[in-house]
Write a structure and sequence with these properties.
The protein is an alpha+beta fold. The protein has one domain (22-158): Lipoprotein localisation LolA/LolB/LppX (outer membrane lipoprotein receptor (LolB), chain A). The protein is built from three helices and eleven strands. The chain has an eleven-stranded antiparallel beta sheet with strand order 6-5-4-3-2-1-11-10-9-8-7. The model is unreliable at 1-20 (pLDDT under 50).
């Protein structure tokens, strides 16, 4: 009888665990720098996403040190929380709840407020008020977010191809 119980539990764990795995259509290595009151990181990482589900995995010296997964909730090494709670705790309480998700995907933030485009194709957003002074720049090779008033900076850059000839 115990043999069947172990078999049943094993099948159940396999079935439940198999459904929980995410498969992302976009997974690219990047140089990632995050400076916020609660997060400080600068090294290589992967940005993965499929639809609205986003994951960033951060590495230091080739070892995974943090993973931030954003789907229905935001999960970090210390646990899961709502997007609103994540933004309030890790970024700045005045930002919209989807700010981190949109930065990781290189999409407009704050509903596209203050959007401008340069002749080189880079997209800029400038958002300034009493609580924030944001420069958000997006190009094909880099995403850069800086809020001077709140001490926030997120930079996501392509890894340069070292095989290119000069």
């Amino acid at each position: 009888m115990q043999k069947y119980s172990i078999l049943w539990v094993s099948v159940l764990v396999l079935f439940m665990g198999g459904c929980a795995a995410k498969h992302y259509s976009i997974s690219t290595p990047k140089i990632i720098t995050i400076k916020s009151p609660k997060l400080k990181f600068s090294d290589m990482g992967y940005v993965r996403y499929e639809g609205d589900a986003v994951e960033v995995e951060l590495f230091t010296a080739g070892v995974a040190v943090e993973k931030i997964s954003i789907d229905d909730k935001v999960c970090v090494s210390t646990g899961c929380m709502s997007e609103e709670s994540f933004v309030k705790e890790y970024l700045y309480e005045g930002y919209p709840r989807d700010t981190m998700r949109r930065i990781l995907q290189g999409e407009p933030i704050f509903g596209g407020k203050g959007k401008d485009e340069t002749c080189g194709g880079a997209l800029f957003q400038f958002i300034r008020n009493d609580d924030m002074d944001i420069l958000y720049r997006r190009s094909p090779t880099e995403t850069y977010f800086k809020d001077r008033l709140n001490g926030m900076m997120i930079k996501i850059s392509d890894i340069p191809d070292t095989n290119e000839t000069q």
